[in-house]
Amino acid sequence: MQPRLAILILTYNEEKNIGLCMDSASFADEIVVVDSGSTDQTAAIVAEKGGKIVVHPMVDGFAGQRNFALTQTQAEWVLFLDADERLAPEVEEEVWRIMERGDAFAYEILRKNIVFGQPVFHGGHAPDWSLRFYPRAAIRWEGIVHEAAKVTLPVKRLHACMFHHTYQDWERYFFKLNQYTTMLAQKMHEAGKRASFGAICFRPLAGFFKFYVLKSGWRDGKMGFILAAFHAFYTMAKYVKLWTLQRKGGR
Q: Looking at the DSSP assignment, which residues form a beta bridge with residue 134?
């Protein structure tokens, strides 16, 4: 019997992205969208395009949401997508060929990042390999914000790629920045980590140097500088929030 493929997508207010994302994945046997409570037209668009929509509050972070998604299909193979990602046309032929062979491997796929409409090839956004395609029984996700896929199989890489249309407007960028830094600070606090004022001052500078110099972000021009600068701000926000939690907790 031919193995089945499910594309699993997490959403929250993704009406601008979900349609094109699903179109790029239309070759799958099933598209399952796990939504954490959208107030826009996300659910209606998913239903219109024939996807399965499941509303599930995000109570255990992104890893918990992805693990829940795994329980919403019986397909033998799964491929995770984010709503702002698009699969290249070559993905279809490659994944079906892998499934037909019954390969006992998990697969990374290269994400080509497009930031505010500009492709970026350096800094913290490249190269960006993400472990997304595998037999459903071989995968589990761990982590709160920057979740990671844990697999029980050897890992290979797909030849085909995906396109990641990340940060298409500044409002969404700052929404995610605020959301992620709050969750990371809480996770660090619960793990007993502390933030000194020195960390607040110097870790952002180290982050900028890493992204802009060591990872050649300067080669992406003005956008490379902007992204490195905002990575520094992201780092500072995370440690300021951790520092605030310490003070509230009397630590």
A: 78
